[in-house]
Request: fold
Amino acid sequence: MLGKLQIDQQQHSLFGNNLIEILNLKHPLIKLAHQLPWSRLENDLAHLYARRGAPSHPLRKMLGLLLLQNIFKLSDERIVEVWQENPYYQYFTGEASLAWHQPCAASDLVHFRKRIGEQGAQMLLKSTLGLHESTIKKAKEVLVDTTVQEKNITHPTDAKLYKKVIDKCVALSKGLKVKLRQSYLQVSRKLMYVQRYINHPQQFKVARKAIKKLKTLAGTGTRSKQTFNGFRKNSHLSAAPRYNDSYSYSN
Reply:
């Protein structure tokens, strides 16, 4: 069930402890909060919640956290901590008075992104770009500096490269209909989990052994007799060197 904010931000308090009475109204976040179409966004995303059950976090709060997270490039854990310390962040997400608790758990942001999906993220981006629609239309050209633009890539560590070699050998063997003695998919998956603790002082030796084992399995996959013969048979490489049948390899 969709949760809602309990207090109106524009309603003044008898004791004068509302955020609107103590903050600078000319702050950029407050100006942005007054310009964004929060009601339209809530109406467009309300169908993603059930009508019964425990109330969720308000949509205004979750959408505001996502925007703040992208504006200031903060992680899920960090945005939750900074929100608790910054009253401007709290006002931006719809809070009327100063809150001393965290807005939500860091994992709630992950679940919320999965709930709205790519369509909800595009809707949120479109609403922010709509604030500058007139400026964009008048502009003759837009200059974008992409030298420090983030990319959806991962750092190629040795373990990841070994795992990629193993998966690639298995995929190629299936495409060529070559039957392997052992694919090592389950073993490599467990080893990838163990090697994550390479920087842990107590798990360093175990993680290093896991990386060495991955290297061995990757070499075994590339030197496999069945894989080599399958490639040679299906690619018709007459000039390919003959495979040594007496070569033995470990399981």
Observations:
- Residues 19-134 form one domain.
- The chain has a mean pLDDT of 82.
- The CA atoms of residues 43 and 86 lie 28 Å apart.
- The chain has two domains: 19-134, 158-235.
